Amino acid sequence: MIVLIVVVFIGLFLYEAPGLVAKEFWRELAVFTLLMLLGLFLSILLASGVELPYVESIWVELFMGLRKMLASGS
Amino acid sequence: MAQELISPRQLTFLVISFTIGSWIVLPSGIEAWQNLWLLILFALGQALGFVYLSLFLFRRYPGKTLFAVHEFVYGPVLGKLISLLFLWFFLQTGAGALAVFVTLLKTTVFTDTPDLALLLPWVIIIVYGCRRGLEVIARSNEPLVLATVGLILVSVFLVLNAFKAENLLPLFNQSLATVFWNTLGIAVFPFGQNVLFLMLLPQVNRPQKVRGAVLRGMVVAGGLLSLLQFLAVGVLGRTGELFVFPTIEFYRMIIIGQVLTRLELIPLLNFLTMGFIKIMLCLYTLAVGTAQILELRAYRPLVLPLGILILVFARQIYPSISLHLHYIEEVQPLVSLFFCFFLPMLTLGVSFLRGGAQQEMAS
Q1: B302 with A12: Cβ contact below 8 A
Q2: Minimum Cα–Cα distance from B324: chain A residue
Q3: Which of B53, B139, B307, B334 is buried most, with the most CB atoms less than 10 Å from its CB?
């Protein structure tokens, strides 16, 4: 699965990057590469079954913590 | 970046789609179920106030997006930081709608299909649409929104034999605190999320008509959602609040002459079309916003990797629908209030303090 993900990402990179190089959009190429690497990293983590935190769970815990703090302060 | 222009009418249609978006199948404020259709109207009034005030930003800085205004008002560093917060908000909104889409399909139609098989085709179409630009999104939205409005209006006739007026009673049986909290919850989601359009308003070809176009879109969307809830409560009665997707259940109850049955495809279609536009607008704004913050010449190269990020985040938004419902009920009103009302008002206030008014008078 991880090999497949890497192959897909390389394919997508090769699809987009030559156009940016031809137009000399170096900043765009840098940001595109960084975002692709971030996507690749997160996809590999998910595919390997690493337990990543859930966005809304973090928000809920944060607000519950704040509520508790305010309740104990009052 | 090449300027793509849309008309005020197309903006109105986009606002309708974005507002209806995922709310059509997963309403907030379900705690006040029997009063929900009425609370939508209260919330609409409240949200119109929020948005009217937010639109002052566009009047003071015509032709500037929200992120450009941030840099102008707060300076480049703080302005970019606040814009980054908004990028997060757009990412979470888009990924949240995508996650609801998967949950809905998995609980109703494609129960055994893996998440990725539902997400991938959807994201590919969204990325394709975003790369075509705002004009294309707006044009493709027009028939979709007309179909959605048509289907909702047709529903009035479809439920005539199942609708019981007594199901609407008792009305006003909620405490004032519940009414206030739920109204706020609906005012910020779905209506308040229209703050996203502050990024798109400079692309409207007749800026003087922007305010009317946005407010009209919100009123139409609010009216449609209220009508839909009114019908849902009339058909389902109190049991409606037990369902995760009450709109789907209410359409499931429609039986006309043993021929027209199981019409849950209608809300599903409505959500597929409106949710599609909503996610596409989130991705578009995310790409345009990122390009603005990093001072890039084109946003298109960012659409693909940001689409992948939306896909990844959609899988990591909530572990279960019950946590999502808890989040919608308890946390979302405050988070959205921060982005949809507090930050725009803070920006407006600071711009007044910094003397931006002279610029407005000069222009």
Answers
A1: no
A2: A56
A3: B307
